[in-house]
Specification:
The complex is a heterodimer. Chain A is α/β, with parallel strands linked by helices. Chain A is about 35% helix and about 25% strand. Chain A has 2 domains: about 5-120 and about 285-305, NAD(P)-binding Rossmann-like Domain (Rossmann fold); about 125-275 and about 315-330, Dihydrodipicolinate Reductase, domain 2 (2-Layer Sandwich), CATH 3.30.360.10. Helix content of chain B is about 45%, strand content about 10%. In chain B, the strands form 3 sheets. A 7-stranded parallel beta sheet of chain B has the order 3-2-1-4-5-6-10, sandwiched between helices. A two-stranded parallel sheet of chain B has the order 7-9. Chain B has a two-stranded parallel ribbon with strand order 8-11. The chains are: A alpha/beta, B alpha/beta. At the A-B interface, helix 10 of A face helix 1 and helix 15 of B.
Chain lengths: ~350, ~400
């Protein structure tokens, strides 16, 4: 059987750590070309993974691939994806799909206009645990949904090759657009709702934020669910999402690909149920593999992307609105003696 | 000279002092541009919140140092690394500063240039005689200062050296995070009742001194000790941290003379644990054994899988009562694991000198504006936010 030929634009950390090793788990695809402005890096990785072509200009790959993975600094996602879509090459774009809603909209328009699929790299949606959450909520076991609390924070360890993630012009923002694009995508998907209002605070003083708190109300089946998202790149937080309903609550752990805790209240008793893993030793790489498998099927024309651009666009729009209306997080050890009443550093 | 309108390069801008300096310079809303040399992007999360021009690079590369310093007016050199990198990096930064005609070079040294056990009578701002102490950190600070003064004397680099004492506050690893971590694990020790002067200084007071040193033209070519104003003993310092916990952790008091005996007890505990429970042999024990070649060799043998298996087999044949009693005894001993500070810290905790900020007051007009109590309050708020408390 002919394998689907994929290319990867950008040989940074996500490509080296995830996409290339994951490609070895999926027999139906092959990485046919690597592209990076640092040709030496592309060459070294091509040699290591036995990839036939390496280029420094992605325009030269149009004839070599059935689909492309865009794994560049965030600010380049839209323009590069657009070029491939115009050439009718399906795109798997790393998250966040763009740094502004207008860019994201442009990508969706191009996808429709050229009738070419656009997938977004929200690989957490492939986790068994997150799919389980979706099922639990849809099944209404939790009763009427009331509120949620999502906390994710760890000491930042992601050492990007280009250093793009610490620059506003290349990353588009900090922890909100980085980790938060996953968080918002999951919540929008699980709760199948729209954001009614929000209050957003972060600690950016003209650069990219390391900490943020987003309080928001979402509409779900005519009802309002309020919630709080706290994210950090410098603090270890609880690292879980709790969703509360009238009949119980569930807890999802963003770093656990398999398990969800379900607490059901029956009378005065709270029963705790845990899901069990179906896949032995499943980890992030397993699900990057699943994402590639899905994208391979998309490129072959068998199906639509499991994660397409439309919901990702809504996430980007919320992030953009948050940045536009942000308030400064209260941190007296930083700000004592200074005036932050004006939005002069945003 | 005035700082307004200038471009300031901070080396070590991702660090504790450099990071706070960048914040303070940019929050003041004066027309100041700040550049930072960043070792890696994941260290730069704190700095990246600010509109700082950053460059990922290494201060031991003269080319990279030249590249980022090009166009700067002022250099505040806070970076440290390994002893080699500290000295080599300092030399590179001084050389580039001299080539570019930098208008003011603030070298952040340390009172460690007097060693951890300074001789009585030391004030803190005097020129050094450059006697090495044998400690890597102290000696690299001595060597760096020596080179800095050479550039000042021979190349007319407008240098001011600041020697902060023990700096505490948000993001301080040795004097905030580590004490809290150890108190959390109930393993902090006061030596001789903690009655020695701590010579601590709140980070914002150090930043004040840096800004004053940039402004004060009469400070060029001089070194200044920077500390808080009043005497705070180690006992007071650690009790301030202990009081942040809802149930105050106890601090073990240890006489200086008993340290040797306590260390021997620890070694016994380590050895006992290795024998009794080789599978869960704690990593902390490995750190302890570094002081003893004999114990180190035993630990390395015990840690090998086949030996561990043999030991596990042997222990499993012990009578249950013996195993329980021995485990209880070891558990009691194990609470002492790592309670004894390192040799360097013991010296810091027992030295008798209360350093003087007289020269900094006279020449720089330095006055610590944040009191010890205010500094601790801000630190407590940060610790809570960071969820250390």
């Amino acid at each position: 059987m002919k394998r689907i030929r994929l290319g990867i634009v950008g040989c940074g950390a996500v490509t080296r750590i995830y996409h290339l090793p994951a490609s070895k788990l999926v027999p139906s695809i092959e990485i046919a070309v690597l592209v990076d402005k640092n040709l030496e890096l592309a060459k070294t990785l091509s040699k290591k993974y036995k990839i036939p072509y390496f280029q420094c200009d992605y325009h030269e790959t149009f004839d070599l691939v059935d689909g492309i993975i865009v794994a560049l600094p965030n600010s380049l996602h839209a323009s590069v994806s657009d070029d491939f879509l115009k050439n009718k090459i399906p795109v798997l774009c790393e998250k966040p799909m763009a740094t502004s809603s207008s860019e994201a909209k442009g990508m969706l328009v191009a996808s429709r206009k050229y009738d070419t699929p656009l997938a977004v790299g929200f690989m957490r949606r492939f986790y068994r645990s997150s799919r389980r959450v979706k099922k639990i909520i849809s099944s209404r076991i939790l009763g009427e949904l009331d509120h949620f609390d999502f906390e994710e924070g760890n000491i930042y360890q992601w050492n990007t090759t280009s250093g793009f993630s610490i620059r506003k012009d290349t990353a588009g923002g900090g922890v909100l657009i980085d980790t938060g694009s996953h968080t918002l995508d999951l919540l929008l998907w699980w709760l199948d709702g729209s954001v009614m209002n929000f209050d957003y605070k972060d600690d950016s003083y003209g650069g990219v934020e390391a900490n943020c708190i987003l309080e928001l109300a979402m509409a779900n089946e005519g009802k309002q669910i309020s919630g709080r998202i706290e994210l950090s790149r410098e603090r270890k937080l609880r690292n879980s999402c709790k969703i509360f309903g009238s009949k119980g609550w569930l807890e999802f752990f963003p770093h656990d690909t398999e398990n969800v805790q379900l607490h059901l209240i029956e009378g005065m008793k709270s029963n705790v149920m845990k899901t069990e893993s179906l896949i032995q030793n499943a980890n992030d790489l397993t699900y990057f593999g699943m994402q590639l498998l899905d994208f391979g099927c998309v490129c072959a024309g068998y199906k639509k992307p499991y994660v397409d651009g439309s919901l990702a666009y809504r996430g980007i729009k919320i992030i953009e609105d948050c940045y536009k209306n942000k308030k400064i997080l209260e941190m007296p050890w930083i700000t004592t003696g200074f005036d932050f009443s004006e939005k002069t550093m945003g | 000279m005035k700082i307004e309108g200038k471009t300031v390069l901070i080396t070590g801008a991702t660090g504790f002092v450099g990071g706070r300096l960048a914040e303070r310079l940019l929050f003041s809303k004066r027309q100041i541009r700040v550049r930072g040399l960043v070792h890696s992007s994941f260290n730069a999360v704190r700095l990246a919140r600010l509109p700082v021009e950053t460059m990922v690079g290494d201060m031991t590369s003269l080319t990279q140092v030249r590249e980022i310093m090009h166009g700067c007016d002022i250099v505040v050199h806070c970076a440290i690394g390994t002893p080699y990198a500290t000295v080599k990096g300092t030399e590179n930064v001084l050389r580039a500063a001299s080539e570019y005609g930098i208008e003011r070079f603030i070298h952040i040294s340390s009172f460690a240039v007097f060693g951890y056990w300074p001789r009585p009578g030391v004030q803190g701002s005097e020129r050094l005689t450059y006697e090495h102490t044998g400690d890597g950190y102290c000696d690299s600070k001595i060597d760096s200062e020596k080179i800095a003064f050479q550039y000042c004397d021979r190349k007319k680099l407008p240098l001011v050296v600041l020697r902060p004492t023990n700096i505490f506050g948000p993001y301080s690893k040795p004097f905030t995070i580590r004490p809290i971590d150890m108190l959390k694990h109930k393993c902090y020790v006061l030596i001789n009742g903690g009655n020695s002067p701590s010579n601590v200084v709140y980070v914002d007071n150090v930043i004040d001194a840096i800004e004053l040193a940039i402004n004060a033209d009469n400070a060029v070519g001089k070194a200044f000790l920077i500390s808080d104003d009043r005497l705070v003993t180690w006992r007071e310092f650690f009790f301030a941290y202990a009081s942040m916990f809802s149930s105050s952790p106890s601090l073990l008091n240890l006489a200086f003379e008993d340290i040797g005996m306590e260390r021997a007890r620890q070694r016994g505990a380590v050895f006992g644990q290795a024998l009794l429970n080789p599978r869960e042999f704690p990593n902390s024990a490995l750190a302890l054994t570094q002081e003893s070649k004999f114990l180190n060799s035993i630990v390395s043998i015990v840690s090998r899988a086949p030996v561990r298996k043999q030991l596990e087999g042997a222990v499993s044949h012990f009578p249950e009562t013996l195993k329980t009693k021995a485990a209880d005894a070891m558990s009691e001993y194990s609470t002492h694991i790592n309670r004894i500070p390192s040799d360097g810290l013991i010296k810091i905790f027992t030295q008798k000198v209360q350093f003087s900020i007289k020269d900094a007051k006279e020449v720089l007009a330095y006055k610590p504006t944040v009191t010890f109590e205010e500094g601790m309050k801000l630190t407590e708020e940060w610790l809570k936010y960071q969820r250390f408390l």
